[in-house]
Design goal:
2 domains; 182 residues; alpha+beta; Alpha-Beta Plaits; 5-stranded antiparallel β-sheet; single chain
């Protein structure tokens, strides 16, 4: 039978058998390899996304702690925030040659189940030092946040010197239930 086939028939049969062989080879080996390559690239992408997961978790926990502290849901409710602010500000003022002018008791206001305490700090010094104080309070003071800063330049009549005063307003918001528990 081999001798009875023409060249054209041999070529056709060879192409058909080669095509069938290619299909069988693809189904048995190559398709699995391609699927594994695709799955591997997807897993590598997931791993690369999760490389900094511990840092993201730490940042999320810090953000959650800060939010809880600002809303008054923190467990450390028995700490007097006014004394904590006084200690923080007075230490910074002494180190940086500023003058603490006024530090009254905080004002409390209750509205819709929340207690808002507003503390006011008045400090005298040069502009850069006062800005650094605001930054220091913003970064290190955990009892509330700065809501406003007012700078006023005054001129003393006796010495004819100009002085810059900064009034810093800090607020702490707590729920009434948290305030009662502390």
């Amino acid at each position: 039978m081999k001798n009875n086939l023409t060249y054209k028939q041999k070529l056709t049969y060879t192409l058909i058998i080669g095509g069938l062989f290619a299909i069988i080879l693809y189904n048995m080996a190559i398709s699995d390899t391609i699927a594994l390559v695709v799955e591997n690239s997807e897993l590598e992408l997931l791993v690369s996304k999760n490389v900094d997961a511990p840092l993201q978790i730490k940042a999320a926990k810090e953000k959650l702690n800060k939010i809880e502290q600002l809303t008054g849901n923190e467990l450390k409710t028995n700490v007097d925030i006014h004394q904590m602010l006084l200690g923080s500000v007075s230490g910074y003022v002494q180190e940086n040659n500023l003058i603490l002018k006024d530090f009254p008791q905080p004002y409390s206001m209750t509205d819709k189940g929340y207690i808002t305490k507003t503390a006011i700090v008045t400090v005298e010094g040069d502009f850069i030092s006062l800005l650094k104080l605001c930054n220091y309070i913003e970064k290190n003071y955990q009892g509330g946040k700065i809501v406003a800063v007012d700078f006023k330049a005054t001129k003393e009549l006796r010495t004819r010197k100009r002085k810059l005063n900064s009034t810093i307003y800090l607020q702490n918001v707590k729920t009434e239930e948290d305030e009662e528990n502390s």
